Amino acid sequence: MHIWQIEHYQKYFDIDTQQALERLLSSITPQQNKSYFNSTIRHNPDLYGPFWICATFIVTVAIGGNIVTYFHSPNADFQIDFSKIALSAIVTNLSLLVVNVNIYFFFFRYYIKRNEYAFLELLCIYGYRLTIFIPVSILWIMPIACLQWVLTIIASLISASVLIVTLWPAVNFGRKHLSALSMLAVLFVHSMMVVCIMLVFFHISDKNIDFTQEITTLTTMASSAKSNV
């Protein structure tokens, strides 16, 4: 079958830099004046952007988690915990598949029965939607619990607004309240993924943080680096 041939997927990686940048920008700024899904993604989805966005997010989460563990274990040597990469990949990809499979089969196959929408089109939209969480995953390294929560909420709201504005014209058929409830369920699953990653890899209660020890550790590292110059 052609789906088992590499050539079948080659077209989904045929995208230039300008198109990739436009889609990255659109993933963090809702396109209110037009149906972005119908005008840009439909019939021209790509997997190149979502692949590298997901891969980058997984790596930044794993590296950030290792850095947080190191700073809160000052007496231990820095070691890379590769299990964090595996765990980050499992959570991210599982959420990606669960959300898209449910949208595709429930909305487009069962509920509104619109077969013209392809699964890869949804995968493209959702993959780009993770863009906002890459810089956030870097900022999560800062050991301030309230800041971590604020970053999580803001990034989730931006990501949710993009998804709603992008997909609503495509799913808004029939009973609107059912469509709205289903979209809320999708947003809930995605938000839970983000919260779980933040709590598992980065979050440390302010009560458990010894800021004196944090400052001492950073000062020692800076002095050591200066003496080696």
Automatic annotation (TrEMBL):
Signal peptide, first to last residue: none
A cellular component term, taken from the record's GO annotations: Golgi membrane
Gene Ontology molecular functions: small GTPase binding
Topological category with respect to the lipid bilayer: Multi-pass membrane protein
GO biological process, one term: vesicle-mediated transport
Pfam hit, one: Yip1
Name of the protein described by the UniProt record: Protein YIPF
